[in-house]
Amino acid sequence: MRPIKLALVTSTLALAAGFAQAGEIAVIVKTTSSNFWQNVNRGAEAAIAAQGEHSFTFDGPATESAVADQVNLVENAINRGVAGIVLAPSDPEALAPAVKRAYEAAIPVVIIDSALADSAEGTYQSFLSTDNCAAGEEVAKRMIEKAGTEGKVAIMSYVAGVGSEIGRVGCFSDYLAANSQLEIVGPFYSQSQMANALNQTTDILAANPDLVGIFGANEPTAVGMGRAIVQAGKAGQLVALGFDGNADLQQFVRDGVLDATAVQGSFAMGEKGIETIIRILGDDAVEPFVNTGVVLVDKDNIDTDTAQNVLY
């Protein structure tokens, strides 16, 4: 994963134009149709409820692949003069110009979940995310532990080139290559559509009956993967690992369809995203990167406080 290099530009922006001291904070995520992003919304609500000066709006496109729609949402927020933006960019390159425009309008931006392109460096104030490379490596370690070091492992991914996908899937693959003889099948991209993932996984299972493992790299992809495994009668016959923690994935863990699922601190992204914007508006220094963490949830720990605090 590339090193994160962010400048603390809060005071520069404030001197240039002066931040609005109150008003709307726009939270713009990759899609509103996912439980993961709704949990980000709940975190933002909690942060707003803890203060009385700012309001917030929550929006996102219908699907994660509707990148142009997300760009328009950011542009609209800038045009209506919001006090700040919390953004989970669907595409690292496509969202960079809009974030630069927010910077030029003296609107602070906090990025969550997925990194922006290097060209955007210095135009946003903080990045709050799972360390996706470290998370991918943790999943790879679990795969080797449970599936062994030889055989085929399929990767069911989501949207190619998204910052979180590059780190998560890239480091999963790199770790397997460096520490095992496991052969990677894929990756295959569902476009974060559960039905696509189900159909793709069904085809992969049929074409590769000798798979020893499979990894579904985000919520809708892992759900579709899990359903395909059940339909194919393959539950428990290969090591299936997921990512994220909605009710479907929790049930797959309890039923033994998934050996484990890696769950991000989605609530923390929303809560800390709002809190960070508020600190910036108050001209307080903020950290350039905040790791919101990941928990590997399996049958043994799913009912513990550690797991329940991140599941949604």
From TrEMBL:
Entry annotated with the keyword Endoplasmic reticulum:
no
Tell me which stretches of the chain form a coiled coil: none
Q: Which Gene3D superfamilies match?
A: 3.40.50.2300
According to the entry, every stretch annotated as the Periplasmic binding protein domain falls at 25-281
Q: What GO terms fall under cellular component here?
A: cell envelope
Q: Which UniProt keywords apply?
A: Signal
Main subcellular location of this protein, as a coarse class: other
Q: Please provide, alphabetically and separated by semicolons, the GO molecular function terms listed in this UniProt record.
A: carbohydrate binding
Q: Which SUPFAM superfamilies does the UniProt record give?
A: Periplasmic binding protein-like I (SSF53822)
Signal peptide coordinates: 1-22
State the Pfam families in the record: Peripla_BP_4
What subcellular locations does the record give? Cell envelope
Among PANTHER family, the record links this protein to: D-ALLOSE-BINDING PERIPLASMIC PROTEIN-RELATED
As for family, the record states:
Belongs to the bacterial solute-binding protein 2 family.
Spell out the protein name for this chain.
ABC transporter substrate-binding protein
Taxonomic source organism: Mangrovicoccus algicola
